[in-house]
């Protein structure tokens, strides 16, 4: 059965990026290494969780996670992710500005969706078939999905830092009952998994 | 060596109490059982962490954690904690309104401190001697200690719920580097311990 999963690296205080995200600083000010060291410096130790991040049949992400900026698209810019993005599946990017799909190497195609999270999820479910749909971020997008009660499983990768500012998870989310699935500490991160309980 | 430790039960989104705390609802609206079930329903399973909460030579707490209300004291009210509070040590309560100390059974004496967290910590350190000083809460008090760089160890007891509103940890705190110490999941809670890194 296809599930909607969320996979986010976050500081202990729930920030998933610092302020002032830009082309040069996709994670904003002073957050990149704190949030991603476990992925780069301890990839083998965290292999299971890293593999799971891209193990989905389709992805949904906010515009900031595709590229910086607002307003009309600069079509020469094809995203943070290089010519062979790690998704290897359709990715539905939330935006207010239409743009034709961008087919990349390795099976990743970015589709641009102007109809909000409901349309993005409908398209992603169709594309994913029996596989999971992953809400890849950022925080604002995850918060929208949580607030709408659309998430089945929440996977947080909690890094040992308080960032104090930036893009924060769990802002504007409603009360949500969870069931703990697992907690695993490695040298640089603690992986927490929860299922969202349905009434 | 005496340390300043923080021990807080919090929802996954960092709330330590719901809104509208009152005499009848010390944890505010709709938060009590979500935050405390692990203490009452699974006390044996969480015995080590529960014992550690009150294993300190002195405690500091915000006024809300002693009793509800603001303004001048109602001296007939002697706190949430009954006649034999669980602290068995001096407790320094932050307040803007002077009040003589309240000596309770079992070694707990509540002292009321009007000089803010620095004075409370100084008095608590003196009282604790070689033992730890525990900042017992609530969130506003813990946030003040974190923002001032006064915490040595942070122990969070993360319960599987998003509360979405209430008293939130890590509001107004500065960037703080941590070192993971441990993570332990039991049936109803995940215990996370961090040391605060000193430059």
Q: What does this molecule look like?
A:
Chains A, B: Residues 3-187 form the Bacterial bifunctional deaminase-reductase C-terminal domain. Chains A, B: GO terms for molecular function: 5-amino-6-(5-phosphoribosylamino)uracil reductase activity; DNA binding. Chains A, B: It comes from Virgisporangium aurantiacum. Two copies of one chain form a homodimer. The first copy, chain A, has 199 residues and is α/β, with parallel strands linked by helices. Chain A has a single domain, classed as Dihydrofolate Reductase, subunit A, CATH 3.40.430.10. Chain A contains five helices and twelve strands. The first copy, chain A, has helices at residues 32-41, 47-53, 63-66, 116-128, 139-147, and strands at residues 4-11, 15-17, 58-62, 90-94, 102-103, 109-113, 133-137, 153-159, 161-162, 167-168, 176-185, 190-196. In chain A, the strands form two sheets. A nine-stranded mixed β-sheet of chain A has the order 5-6-4-3-7-1-8-12-11. A two-stranded antiparallel sheet of chain A has the order 2-10. In chain A, a hairpin with a 5-residue loop joins strand 5 and strand 6. Chain A is globular and about 40 Å long. The model of chain A has no long low-confidence stretch (mean pLDDT 95). The A-B interface holds A 12-14, 30, 34, 146, 154, 156, 158, 160-165, 169-170, 173-180, 182-185, 187-190, 192, 194 and B 12-14, 30, 34, 146, 154, 156, 158, 160-165, 169-170, 173-180, 182-185, 187-190, 192, 194.
């Amino acid at each position: 059965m296809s599930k909607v999963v969320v996979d986010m690296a976050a500081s202990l205080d729930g920030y998933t990026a610092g302020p002032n995200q830009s082309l040069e600083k996709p994670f904003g000010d002073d957050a990149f290494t704190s949030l991603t060291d476990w992925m780069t410096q301890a990839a083998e130790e965290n292999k299971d969780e890293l593999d799971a991040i891209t193990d989905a049949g389709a992805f949904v992400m906010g515009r900031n996670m595709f590229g910086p900026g607002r307003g009309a698209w600069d079509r020469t810019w094809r995203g943070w992710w290089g010519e062979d993005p790690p998704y290897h599946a359709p990715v539905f990017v939330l935006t207010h500005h239409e743009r034709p799909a961008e087919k990349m190497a390795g099976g990743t195609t970015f589709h641009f969706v102007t109809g909000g999270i409901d349309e993005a999820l409908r398209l992603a479910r169709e594309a994913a078939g029996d596989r999971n749909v992953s809400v890849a971020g950022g925080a604002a997008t995850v918060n929208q999905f949580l607030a709408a009660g659309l998430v089945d499983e929440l996977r947080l990768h909690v890094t040992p830092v308080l960032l104090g500012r930036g893009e924060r998870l769990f802002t504007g989310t409603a009360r949500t009952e969870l069931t703990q699935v697992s907690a695993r500490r490695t040298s640089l991160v603690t992986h927490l998994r929860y299922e969202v309980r349905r009434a």
